[in-house]
Amino acid sequence: MVRFSLKITRLQHSAGVHYLNEIIINLHMHTWYSDGHASHREIAYAAMKAGLDAVIVTDHNIWVDGLEKYYRHENQRVLVLIGEEIHDPTRLPQKNHLLVFGANHELAPLAYDPQQLLDGVRQHGGLSFLAHIIDLAAPAVNEPDISWNDWDIHGFTGIELWNGFSEFKSLIKSKAHAVFYAFFPHLVAHGPSPDALKKWDDLLKSGSHIVAVGGADAHAIPSRLGPLKRTLFPYEFHFRAINTHCLISRELTGNLKEDRSMILDALANGHAFIGYDLPASTRGFSFTAQGITQTAQMGDVIPAKNGVTFQIRLPQLAECRLIKNGAVLKTWRNRKSCTLITAEQGVYRVEAYINYYNKRRGWIFSNPIYLT
């Protein structure tokens, strides 16, 4: 499937009509350079098969220079950007993992101090996302708790709200569970950890603008239990599941510098939402706020004075919840279109749920719109 023509969302502004292009990216994965099991080119081919527009490779404590580019195969293309997942390897267990995008500089030597690392990312013009903030231990497979635990920090761009591999770990109560989910990975995802959602809402209520993203944390780990062999979550599977959808100012041009800048700008400003695309594509979702003189999209600030109309559009019928300051304000069921008018200040975001394999599962998690 060719991804050169992108979904267009139209927003009305007082100055005219502004078009936003929706692209799908996956932004947390590993290659042979750290603990992954594929090359950048192989990851690019898996991303093309899954219909992604871009990926951000984040090897552990190594910034790989020279491989950031468009990869092409026949009439398809995908943009591969290079980031890094940084943590202090001398600490056991190795908590406080940070996803770094756009710094274009090796910053792993700063990992011993999370605040110095965040300051270094900012000084180099990069973005920083606290990785898998809730990542509990799985003793059955000797996996430690590697949640983020140093919250006496400031200056980070956002958090990885939903991490696919962390959720898998949370389900492993025995080796039998590990084998079961290795063979039936489509049964894993239910949504972000409730603790991660609460932490995000608490940060937002404190006045911080914190961008949420979703990542695969893809490794494609070859595993074996007796005669049973299985690759734990191949890259292509991960790329069809938990993704981050970005709204950029215009279509991808094929120019590395320009397209990279548009993607990083969308992530920096929260012009994005998390979509679980395996049950059904989340492409086409929109969440806007219409005021008297302007329209806001996810990540934007808009005055509440004189009232604002929230408009939510879902790609298909689903359960939709509008969250205000961490609490459910309104729930719609079996709807594709939802509207609410308010003049109350607050932080508003959207969650959508669908049924998949007889269970209610998280489908869409928007970034907030801030009413001041």
Which features characterize this protein?
alpha+beta, single chain, Immunoglobulin-like, 372 residues
Describe what you observe in this structure.
It is a single chain. By secondary structure, this protein is an alpha+beta fold. It folds into two domains: 7-278, Metal-dependent hydrolases (TIM Barrel); 285-365 and 368-372, Immunoglobulin-like (Sandwich), CATH 2.60.40. Helices cover 19% and strands 38% of the residues. It has seven helices and 22 strands. It has a 15-stranded mixed beta sheet that branches. A five-stranded mixed beta sheet has the order 6-7-8-9-10. A two-stranded antiparallel sheet has the order 11-12. Mean pLDDT is 93; it is low at 1-18.
Describe what is shown at a glance.
The protein has 372 residues and is α+β, with helices and mostly antiparallel strands. It has helices spanning 40-50, 114-123, 164-171, 175-183, 194-205, 235-239, 256-269, and strands at residues 7-13, 16-26, 54-57, 69-73, 76-82, 84-86, 98-101, 127-130, 158-163, 211-215, 221-225, 228-232, 242-248, 272-276, 286-290, 295-297, 301-302, 308-324, 327-342, 346-356, 359-366, 369-371.
